[in-house]
């Protein structure tokens, strides 16, 4: 009796092995690694914003301005933003690949997901790094009370 190997389901009998990087493997690994990092980042975010200090009552414009005055919290939030959007876009890509049968529609939807994620990542990053609670030349009645010009 000879031992035979069973081919993977839906694999053509003589399918050639693809050369190059395996994007599905890297996407799978990204989802696991980013998921663990996101758990740490999100629970740290919730701990600082909702548990420590005065809890949810402390969150106002001044609280956010104080957090974004330090590079640590800027990078914390940007890392959380980037990981979450890429994680979500990769998940949507997987869902599209599983359920959309027409190749042209699948490619179009996948491109739209990545374009939307890219635009939102860029806008979110700009908001975090260009946030200025006391812009120069603003009317005094529009500035918050903690700004030196008010």
Automatic annotation (TrEMBL):
Organism this protein belongs to: Microbacterium mangrovi
Transmembrane portions of the chain: 29-52, 72-90, 111-131
Organism lineage string: Bacteria, Bacillati, Actinomycetota, Actinomycetes, Micrococcales
Domain of life: Bacteria
Keywords carried by this UniProt record: Heme, Iron, Membrane, Metal-binding, Transmembrane, Transmembrane helix
UniProt name for this protein: Succinate dehydrogenase
Localization terms from the record: Membrane
GO cellular component: membrane
GO molecular function: metal ion binding
């Amino acid at each position: 009796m000879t031992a035979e190997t069973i081919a993977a389901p839906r694999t053509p009998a003589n399918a050639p092995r693809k050369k190059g990087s395996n994007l599905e493997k890297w996407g799978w690994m990204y989802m696991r690694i980013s998921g663990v990092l996101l758990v740490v980042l999100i629970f740290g975010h919730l701990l600082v914003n909702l548990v420590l200090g005065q809890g949810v009552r402390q969150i106002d414009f001044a609280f956010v301005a104080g957090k974004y005055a330090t590079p640590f919290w800027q990078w914390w939030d940007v890392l959380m933003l980037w990981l979450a959007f890429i994680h979500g876009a990769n998940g949507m890509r997987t869902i599209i690949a599983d359920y959309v049968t027409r190749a042209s529609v699948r490619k179009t939807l996948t491109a739209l997901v990545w374009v939307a994620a890219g635009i939102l990542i860029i806008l979110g990053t700009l908001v975090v790094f260009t946030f200025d609670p006391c812009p120069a030349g603003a009317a005094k009645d529009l500035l918050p009370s903690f700004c030196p010009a008010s």
